[in-house]
Amino acid sequence: MPEGPSVRKFQLLTSPFVGQVVAKVGGSSRKINVNDLNALRLQDSPVRLILHFESGGFLVFYNCRMHWCSSPRADPASDILSMEFHRGRALDALRAPNPISYTLLDQRYFSGLGNIIKNEILYLTKIHPLTQGSLLAPSDLERLLDCALQFSSDWLHHKLRGQGLHPQIYQREQCPLGHPVMKGTFGPLGAFKRLTWWCPQCQPEVLPGEGDPSPVTE
Ligand SMILES: [Zn+2]
Asked: Which end of the chain has the least Cβ crowding within 10 Å, N or C?
Protein backbone atom coordinates (compact mmCIF):
# COMPACT_ATOMS: atom_id res chain seq x y z
CA MET A 1 0.00 0.00 0.00
CA PRO A 2 1.70 3.22 -1.07
CA GLU A 3 1.65 6.09 1.38
CA GLY A 4 -0.56 9.07 0.56
CA PRO A 5 2.30 11.53 -0.09
CA SER A 6 3.80 9.17 -2.72
CA VAL A 7 0.46 8.82 -4.47
CA ARG A 8 -0.19 12.57 -4.33
CA LYS A 9 3.23 13.42 -5.75
CA PHE A 10 2.55 11.03 -8.61
CA GLN A 11 -0.83 12.61 -9.20
CA LEU A 12 0.65 16.14 -9.25
CA LEU A 13 3.32 15.10 -11.77
CA THR A 14 0.86 13.37 -14.11
CA SER A 15 -2.12 15.73 -13.80
CA PRO A 16 -0.99 18.04 -16.70
CA PHE A 17 -1.81 15.14 -19.06
CA VAL A 18 -5.32 14.53 -17.76
CA GLY A 19 -7.81 15.06 -20.60
CA GLN A 20 -5.22 14.50 -23.34
CA VAL A 21 -5.42 11.68 -25.88
CA VAL A 22 -2.68 9.03 -26.09
CA ALA A 23 -1.10 9.39 -29.54
CA LYS A 24 1.47 6.58 -29.28
CA VAL A 25 2.34 3.86 -26.75
CA GLY A 26 5.73 2.37 -25.95
CA GLY A 27 6.90 -0.32 -23.54
CA SER A 28 5.49 -3.76 -22.90
CA SER A 29 3.40 -5.71 -20.45
CA ARG A 30 2.40 -9.38 -20.22
CA LYS A 31 -0.88 -8.42 -18.58
CA ILE A 32 -2.37 -6.17 -21.22
CA ASN A 33 -1.81 -5.25 -24.85
CA VAL A 34 -0.34 -1.77 -24.41
CA ASN A 35 -1.52 -0.77 -27.90
CA ASP A 36 -5.08 -0.90 -26.57
CA LEU A 37 -4.18 2.31 -24.73
CA ASN A 38 -3.75 4.13 -28.04
CA ALA A 39 -6.27 6.90 -28.69
CA LEU A 40 -7.65 6.64 -25.15
CA ARG A 41 -7.97 9.84 -23.20
CA LEU A 42 -6.22 10.07 -19.84
CA GLN A 43 -9.15 10.55 -17.49
CA ASP A 44 -7.32 10.53 -14.25
CA SER A 45 -3.73 10.28 -13.14
CA PRO A 46 -3.07 6.53 -13.11
CA VAL A 47 -0.91 4.91 -10.62
CA ARG A 48 6.48 0.40 -18.17
CA LEU A 49 4.86 1.99 -20.11
CA ILE A 50 5.32 5.15 -22.17
CA LEU A 51 2.36 7.27 -23.22
CA HIS A 52 2.95 9.91 -25.88
CA PHE A 53 0.34 12.64 -26.05
CA GLU A 54 -0.91 14.80 -28.90
CA SER A 55 0.67 17.84 -27.27
CA GLY A 56 4.10 16.27 -27.76
CA GLY A 57 4.56 15.50 -24.05
CA PHE A 58 4.96 11.98 -22.72
CA LEU A 59 4.69 10.01 -19.51
CA VAL A 60 6.96 7.12 -18.58
CA PHE A 61 5.95 4.59 -15.90
CA TYR A 62 8.72 2.46 -14.48
CA ASN A 63 8.20 -0.93 -12.86
CA CYS A 64 4.46 -0.60 -12.68
CA ARG A 65 1.96 -3.43 -12.74
CA MET A 66 -0.81 -2.95 -15.25
CA HIS A 67 -4.30 -4.31 -15.41
CA TRP A 68 -7.61 -2.97 -16.64
CA CYS A 69 -10.00 -1.81 -13.96
CA SER A 70 -12.88 0.56 -13.39
CA SER A 71 -11.95 3.97 -12.01
CA PRO A 72 -11.82 3.84 -8.23
CA ARG A 73 -12.56 7.13 -6.52
CA ALA A 74 -11.27 7.84 -3.05
CA ASP A 75 -13.65 9.57 -0.69
CA PRO A 76 -12.05 12.99 -0.02
CA ALA A 77 -13.59 12.92 3.47
CA SER A 78 -11.20 10.13 4.41
CA ASP A 79 -8.19 11.36 2.39
CA ILE A 80 -5.59 12.64 4.86
CA LEU A 81 -4.21 15.02 2.21
CA SER A 82 -7.57 16.44 1.15
CA MET A 83 -8.97 19.79 2.26
CA GLU A 84 -12.29 17.95 2.68
CA PHE A 85 -10.87 15.46 5.21
CA HIS A 86 -13.56 14.82 7.85
CA ARG A 87 -11.95 15.39 11.22
CA GLY A 88 -14.95 14.41 13.32
CA ARG A 89 -15.32 11.07 11.61
CA ALA A 90 -11.60 10.37 12.06
CA LEU A 91 -11.73 11.21 15.78
CA ASP A 92 -14.75 8.95 16.25
CA ALA A 93 -12.78 6.11 14.67
CA LEU A 94 -9.70 6.80 16.81
CA ARG A 95 -11.59 6.66 20.09
CA ALA A 96 -12.85 3.12 19.40
CA PRO A 97 -11.69 0.39 21.83
CA ASN A 98 -9.18 -0.99 19.32
CA PRO A 99 -5.39 -0.78 19.27
CA ILE A 100 -4.66 2.68 17.90
CA SER A 101 -2.19 1.35 15.32
CA TYR A 102 -4.95 -0.79 13.76
CA THR A 103 -7.34 2.14 13.47
CA LEU A 104 -4.71 4.39 11.87
CA LEU A 105 -4.28 1.92 9.00
CA ASP A 106 -8.03 1.61 8.43
CA GLN A 107 -8.34 3.17 4.97
CA ARG A 108 -12.06 3.82 5.46
CA TYR A 109 -11.09 6.65 7.81
CA PHE A 110 -7.44 7.36 6.95
CA SER A 111 -7.00 6.90 3.24
CA GLY A 112 -3.33 7.40 2.39
CA LEU A 113 -2.05 6.73 5.89
CA GLY A 114 0.43 3.86 5.51
CA ASN A 115 2.78 1.95 7.75
CA ILE A 116 5.60 4.52 7.75
CA ILE A 117 3.29 7.38 8.73
CA LYS A 118 1.69 5.17 11.40
CA ASN A 119 5.02 4.35 13.05
CA GLU A 120 6.34 7.89 12.89
CA ILE A 121 3.28 9.69 14.25
CA LEU A 122 2.86 7.23 17.13
CA TYR A 123 6.46 7.90 18.09
CA LEU A 124 6.12 11.67 17.73
CA THR A 125 3.00 11.69 19.94
CA LYS A 126 4.51 9.16 22.38
CA ILE A 127 1.67 6.68 22.02
CA HIS A 128 2.23 2.92 22.23
CA PRO A 129 0.92 1.19 19.07
CA LEU A 130 -1.24 -1.27 21.02
CA THR A 131 -2.88 1.29 23.31
CA GLN A 132 -6.63 1.22 22.82
CA GLY A 133 -8.01 4.47 21.44
CA SER A 134 -10.74 4.46 24.09
CA LEU A 135 -8.06 4.73 26.84
CA LEU A 136 -6.52 7.89 25.38
CA ALA A 137 -7.58 11.37 26.44
CA PRO A 138 -9.51 13.37 23.80
CA SER A 139 -6.61 15.84 23.71
CA ASP A 140 -4.19 12.99 22.88
CA LEU A 141 -6.42 11.84 20.03
CA GLU A 142 -6.61 15.41 18.69
CA ARG A 143 -2.83 15.68 18.91
CA LEU A 144 -2.39 12.35 17.11
CA LEU A 145 -4.73 13.45 14.32
CA ASP A 146 -2.98 16.84 13.98
CA CYS A 147 0.34 15.01 13.82
CA ALA A 148 -0.95 12.61 11.10
CA LEU A 149 -2.16 15.48 8.91
CA GLN A 150 0.94 17.64 9.45
CA PHE A 151 3.37 14.76 8.93
CA SER A 152 1.65 13.68 5.69
CA SER A 153 1.59 17.22 4.34
CA ASP A 154 5.24 17.86 5.27
CA TRP A 155 6.29 14.57 3.71
CA LEU A 156 4.49 15.46 0.48
CA HIS A 157 6.25 18.85 0.33
CA HIS A 158 9.60 17.20 0.98
CA LYS A 159 8.91 14.73 -1.82
CA LEU A 160 8.00 17.52 -4.22
CA ARG A 161 11.34 19.17 -3.46
CA GLY A 162 13.08 15.84 -4.07
CA GLN A 163 14.03 15.42 -0.42
CA GLY A 164 13.92 12.05 1.33
CA LEU A 165 12.32 11.15 4.62
CA HIS A 166 14.47 10.63 7.70
CA PRO A 167 12.39 8.38 9.94
CA GLN A 168 12.78 8.70 13.68
CA ILE A 169 11.54 5.21 14.54
CA TYR A 170 10.60 3.31 11.37
CA GLN A 171 13.20 0.56 10.76
CA ARG A 172 15.45 2.08 13.44
CA GLU A 173 17.31 0.25 16.16
CA GLN A 174 17.40 3.25 18.48
CA CYS A 175 15.00 6.13 18.97
CA PRO A 176 16.41 9.67 18.63
CA LEU A 177 16.97 9.68 22.42
CA GLY A 178 19.16 6.58 22.20
CA HIS A 179 16.69 4.06 23.65
CA PRO A 180 16.56 0.56 22.11
CA VAL A 181 13.58 0.21 19.79
CA MET A 182 11.18 -2.77 19.84
CA LYS A 183 9.76 -4.37 16.70
CA GLY A 184 6.61 -6.49 16.36
CA THR A 185 4.08 -7.60 13.78
CA PHE A 186 0.62 -6.30 14.66
CA GLY A 187 -2.75 -6.30 12.98
CA PRO A 188 -6.39 -7.20 13.54
CA LEU A 189 -7.37 -10.89 13.67
CA GLY A 190 -7.70 -12.32 10.19
CA ALA A 191 -6.31 -9.17 8.58
CA PHE A 192 -2.97 -8.14 7.16
CA LYS A 193 -0.28 -7.74 9.86
CA ARG A 194 2.24 -4.92 9.65
CA LEU A 195 5.71 -4.52 11.11
CA THR A 196 5.67 -1.96 13.85
CA TRP A 197 8.54 -0.20 15.62
CA TRP A 198 8.19 1.59 18.95
CA CYS A 199 10.26 2.81 21.85
CA PRO A 200 9.02 1.29 25.15
CA GLN A 201 10.45 4.24 27.08
CA CYS A 202 9.11 7.07 24.93
CA GLN A 203 5.84 5.24 24.16
CA PRO A 204 4.69 3.45 27.33
CA GLU A 205 1.65 1.21 26.87
CA VAL A 206 -1.55 2.35 28.54
CA LEU A 207 -3.41 -0.65 29.92
CA PRO A 208 -7.10 -0.76 30.92
CA GLY A 209 -7.57 0.51 34.47
CA GLU A 210 -4.41 2.58 34.57
CA GLY A 211 -6.40 5.78 34.73
CA ASP A 212 -4.23 8.70 33.74
CA PRO A 213 -2.96 8.05 30.24
CA SER A 214 -0.50 10.96 30.30
CA PRO A 215 2.62 10.10 28.35
CA VAL A 216 5.96 9.98 30.12
CA THR A 217 7.96 13.13 29.64
CA GLU A 218 11.71 13.06 29.33
ZN1 LIG B 1 12.90 6.50 23.22
From this structure: C
